[in-house]
């Protein structure tokens, strides 16, 4: 094609000078065409030479953060130098080189602090992982809370070709605490200013993202834009899409100085090596000190200071096309960034209203965001084709354990579940609790799935102390739970409830894994191991704290038993005292727990003695005993081989007995099981013969393990099982 885009075809006759159709005019056209073709060939030769030189200058190792070819994106900078033969935008042309080296690592920095931001960053990461084709290295500047949450999440997520490094945000506070900031992001909203000091000195470039970002394309496209930087350009930014920096939003509105509309710092490309050489640290500090003398504080956190620096030094900035940061705050010009869905690259929910922001196309943007919010994160554990992952000890150990299992074993799925790593998001909601200073504090521990959510409010009304809950949910259910909790006055008024999401995977309910997760994340010296279907008596929390002192739990190995009862009535007038409970027992309104179907589970509690007891009394372990107990936080974990229904608590009580715990029944404590539909797992147990066979096999193996571990003392468990 020639420059006008029209194809030229030459017929065989037109190329022969002795043809009758050959004329003087066609001769001139042919000569003109030959000249133009030679010009095109020369342009192509120059272009190939340019690309060849660019490739020869680029190091081959992907950790150097250089890519071998140029970006195909439009923007201000060096687009002129590659105009010939290169098509801007997203179009794919024959012969176009890949924008980023295949297995090059892309570095991303995110500042994240607190419980809410930790939830937001997961959605951002999901959107990046969904589109990516390159290894990723996330640099997370996190406070103590976010680090605990995200370290566990990524460790259990086990996504190939993803590396995570944490940097202590609390240590950086002194670097920016001198800057007054009115923005809702607080002190953490200023920390992007100190990334040149915080990130490793050998890291040359990084993409910096806010937590309220959603990607709609491969992040490698943005990484490729670094190669369009020229001269002293060290910051890649999108123009601000609101009128904020124009200073005309309201009377006496006085924003920080900015170049025109200013720039938004939700998405930043940082050329770290050049910024360090330019003494960026000194540059932004001097600018901030000067402006604060008149401005007194920042309104938009780091963004104000970045813009003030750029106003003085406009050569620092490379302006990114605005589709790299479509800003969805009120009254923005974001609609000018896209004509079609395919134009969208990055969506930025930079309004305090977040999803409730006003925008003509907000429904579309909201649905895109919700897609990633509720997307099954397990599906993102995919290997990158042709890019070997770094060796991961946990992953290698898991593969080794799984390889040792016999896939032809009829109980293979049961055995496999023991080694399944479930993605875990700790403290899904805000948690704030300091244990009582007298070292008597007790946390109620339980686990649940979506069908038991209705029990949460009732338990919170019955138990005022701290609670640790593990919830087994899908990604979509986790969002339903969040909406349910945020709509509940009872749950929102409680900050001492830790909600830990364990994401669904596999066909079994991993009941003992859930219990272990809830147990592990308590901050009190003692815990009450309960189940979600039970309501504790009113005042049980204070009663247990007194019992802990009375029975010297700190210095003795005791398990304090809270006697369990049940009602078959969905509407129950809950007994307010032991006397009232005994009266309801006599009337048949209440029963001892599982009296009709599994007497052995709680018979050793000795309910006949409990009726008249006024002091704690000791009971002995018996086969199939599974009481609900209060123990020290250092008690053994539950055995993960037991999943779904059957033997999950029995095995734990057996282990407590093997470790010589003393079982003591509390005379004035009780809990009541509320009725509910049978669980899916108990239905499987009752209807599936193979399920029961496998459970029996697992029981026998557990007892053999007990014998090996505890020796002669554990023989009684085999004997008791044979006699039962």
Structure description:
- It is a single chain.
- This protein folds into two domains: about 105-375, Spore Coat Polysaccharide Biosynthesis Protein SpsA, Chain A (Alpha-Beta Complex); about 425-720, Spore Coat Polysaccharide Biosynthesis Protein SpsA, Chain A, CATH 3.90.550.
- Helices cover about 35% and strands about 15% of the residues.
- A nine-stranded mixed beta sheet has the order 11-14-13-12-15-21-17-22-20.
- α2 runs parallel beside α3.
- The longest helix has about 35 residues, at about 25-55.
For the largest sheet, list the strands in their spatial order: 11-14-13-12-15-21-17-22-20
Please name the CATH architecture of the largest domain.
Alpha-Beta Complex
Tally of helical runs? 23
The low-pLDDT segments are 1-23, 54-74, 77-97
The backbone outline, from C-alpha atoms, is elongated
Strand content: 5-15%
Alpha-carbon Rg, integer: 33 Å
The CATH superfamily of the largest domain is known as: Spore Coat Polysaccharide Biosynthesis Protein SpsA, Chain A
C-alpha termini separation: 89 Å
Overall tally of domains: 2
